[in-house]
């Protein structure tokens, strides 16, 4: 069996960083990263991006050396991706923040609305209902992060947590300030508007959870690793959504299946869209916006919808490219339209 020699150069300076001798031909990029870490421990595998060209795309961890367009002496170029943090940590942080922040405004802790309103309670039922819905949504997200979602990439750049938390925490504070304000006025059409909005919110929350479970169940439970060890969710930045990009990935591999409806009626939306989890997520926030009749909530819904549409289109394109028999009637996020 012939062996390979692997030379790893800095993608920017072309400085030789490492030379690996007698590398097995069936070695994967992930294994090469582990070998590289032994000589440069400051660059653990999650920080490494190895590529065939200094300005090319990063090679996948599962790529096999002998299947790459290289000779027996392979030259790879290294880029440092920077400090990494686990997706689970990011999601728990960005979801716990809005839950805690909203409650600060709901209980009207000191220094928010003025001394005379400290720890007072709103007389409007919709304010209390909104708090229940908002809290339920983020508790659901936290539990899904721990027990449902799996990530195809175990880490993400550390800098992203600041961007993500600014988005989630900032919007949570903005909408909570107005909804729980002593001068807040209930929706124009009163109880009827609130009841309709609540129905939309509850249905969409149940639908969102059902889709997440259906995506998870595409693989036998025994094949799923512990959180953060591989696999994937939806994902990310997660603006307004279970953030989670590709939920149909098999953890530890890149194998994917086409998700189809199950016996659960909430999953029947798979007949019409590729990413019904995003559809339901947007619907939840639309319901919450109708319930509270609050402009910051409407803006949060719009921004979230925009981001999730981008994710849904990308996922839809990847499905079409990967599966020749992909259902032709499906749209990315909105049936028949988008």
TrEMBL record:
Enzyme class of the recorded protein, top EC level: oxidoreductase
PROSITE patterns per UniProt: S5A_REDUCTASE
Domain 3-oxo-5-alpha-steroid 4-dehydrogenase C-terminal: 263-338
Subcellular location: Endoplasmic reticulum membrane
Native species: Ailuropoda melanoleuca
Enzyme Commission number, as recorded: 1.3.1.93
Lineage top rank: taxon: Eukaryota
The UniProt record lists the keyword Transmembrane helix: yes
Name of the protein described by the UniProt record: Very-long-chain enoyl-CoA reductase
GN (gene name): TECR
InterPro entries per UniProt: 3-oxo-5_a-steroid_4-DH_C, SRD5A/TECR, TECR-like_N, Ubiquitin-like_domsf
A cellular-component GO term for this protein: endoplasmic reticulum membrane
Catalytic activity: (2E,7Z,10Z,13Z,16Z)-docosapentaenoyl-CoA + NADPH + H(+) = (7Z,10Z,13Z,16Z)-docosatetraenoyl-CoA + NADP(+); (2E)-hexadecenoyl-CoA + NADPH + H(+) = hexadecanoyl-CoA + NADP(+); (2E,7Z,10Z,13Z,16Z,19Z)-docosahexaenoyl-CoA + NADPH + H(+) = (7Z,10Z,13Z,16Z,19Z)-docosapentaenoyl-CoA + NADP(+); a very-long-chain 2,3-saturated fatty acyl-CoA + NADP(+) = a very-long-chain (2E)-enoyl-CoA + NADPH + H(+)
GO MF annotation terms: very-long-chain enoyl-CoA reductase activity
UniProt record similarity statement: Belongs to the steroid 5-alpha reductase family.
Residue ranges crossing the lipid bilayer per the database entry: 85-107, 166-184, 196-215, 286-311
Pathway in which the depicted protein is active: Lipid metabolism; fatty acid biosynthesis; Lipid metabolism; sphingolipid metabolism; Sphingolipid metabolism
Pfam families: Steroid_dh, TECR_N
Entry keyword annotation includes Endoplasmic reticulum: yes
Function: Involved in both the production of very long-chain fatty acids for sphingolipid synthesis and the degradation of the sphingosine moiety in sphingolipids through the sphingosine 1-phosphate metabolic pathway. Catalyzes the last of the four reactions of the long-chain fatty acids elongation cycle. This endoplasmic reticulum-bound enzymatic process, allows the addition of 2 carbons to the chain of long- and very long-chain fatty acids/VLCFAs per cycle.
Any one of the GO BP annotations: very long-chain fatty acid biosynthetic process
Keywords: Acetylation, Endoplasmic reticulum, Fatty acid biosynthesis, Fatty acid metabolism, Lipid biosynthesis, Lipid metabolism, Membrane, NADP, Oxidoreductase, Phosphoprotein, Sphingolipid metabolism, Transmembrane, Transmembrane helix
PANTHER family: 3-OXO-5-ALPHA-STEROID 4-DEHYDROGENASE (PTHR10556), VERY-LONG-CHAIN ENOYL-COA REDUCTASE (PTHR10556:SF31)
